[in-house]
Amino acid sequence: MSGPVTRQDDNRELTSHAGQLGVIIPAFNEAATLAQVLSRVLREPAVGQVVVVDDCSTDGTFEVADRFSGDPRVVLRRHPRNQGKGRAIQTGLEAVSTAIVIIQDADLEYDPQEYERMITPIIEGRADVVYGVRGFASHTAYSYWFVIGNKLVTTATNVLFNCYIQDMETGFKAMRTDLMRRLRLRGRRFDIEPEITARVLRLGYRIHEIPISYYARNRQEGKKLTWQDGVKALFTLLRLRLTTRRRLFGDPDHYHATRLTELASSPRLPPLPEERTAAASTDAQRRSSPGH
Question: Is residue 288, in this structure, part of any structural domain at all?
Fold first, then answer.
């Protein structure tokens, strides 16, 4: 399920970082770390909205989130029964009102201080989808076999979709909200990660990757992903590669052709410092003009 696609979404301008980012935090029994995550998330200037989705936790996760409800940016959702990370993301997406959305796990593995780096290519019009790649900046690993399993499903993605990405299973995924709503996500649990990637690639978008810090936790600290999820990921990738585009997305949507054309004509490199300054000045003048 996903929220409605509106014309307002399609025409939204991305001119600065401030307030542009909506953060979806799916949480299941994360009371021990959720407060730290929310405190860090709400410090970031780019954050305009935070949607916490409690997936029927039993450890007080919702009560921890509720302590932050006084911040107008915070939206709380609660599942009456456990439905999985994928469904929690879809519930969060229905509530997002910002131009860009990012998924933030509630377990301190990903650092909100890297939001600005993640969304800059989207703000600048160089990408519509950005993944944070684990292992090329600072990181701590949980398991050798966990890393090998991730490489396996990432390699399968590259072979099946003729692309080259380095971390398909990353939980740090940012994209334009109007695009994410058009993915028509159905995954319920951890199959949501390969589903997002497969659907993005089937639509013809290129995934921009950025190295990030990653702090893996172990089973005792609450790690939930298992080798069975890796097997399910492979089947999910294969199924979405073989399913017809019409069955995945319905009738053709001209939005994608327009966005892909705009991306193809966008500069490949980030703007120079003086170009950033000029753009910021123009944006400030436009915002202060009468009638804006």
Answer: no
* Per-residue pLDDT reduced to its tens digit, 35-67: 999 999 999 999 999 999 999 999 999 999 999
CA dist list (Å): 26 to 69, 93, 201, 237, 254: 16, 11, 24, 22, 31
The Cβ-side half-sphere exposure at 94, using a 13 Å CA radius, reads 13
Q: Is the residue at 102 inside a domain?
A: yes
Please provide the DSSP assignment of 56-102 as one string. S-SSSHHHHHHTTTTSTTEEEEE-SS---HHHHHHHHHHH--SSEEE
d(CA 153, CA 194): 9
Contact of 197 with 86, CB cutoff 8 Å: no
User: For the purposes of burial, counting CB atoms within 10 Å of the CB of 260, is it exposed (0-12), middle (13-18) or buried (19 or more)?
Assistant: middle
Number of domains in the chain: 1
In a domain, 186, yes or no: yes
**Lookup result for tokens 């019009």:** 125
C-beta separation of 116 from 44 below 8 A: yes
Q: What is the pLDDT of residues 220-247, one digit of tens each?
A: 444 456 757 678 889 999 999 999 999 9
> Are the beta carbons of 78 and 88 closer than 8 angstroms?
no
Classify residue 2: in a domain, yes or no. no
CATH number at residue 34: 3.90.550.10
Domain that holds residue 211: 17-262
Q: What is the DSSP letter of 45?
A: T
Nearest-angstrom CA–CA distance, 76 and 149: 34
169-214: per-residue pLDDT in tens? Answer: 898 999 999 999 999 999 887 789 999 999 999 999 999 999 998 8
pTM, 2 dp: 0.85
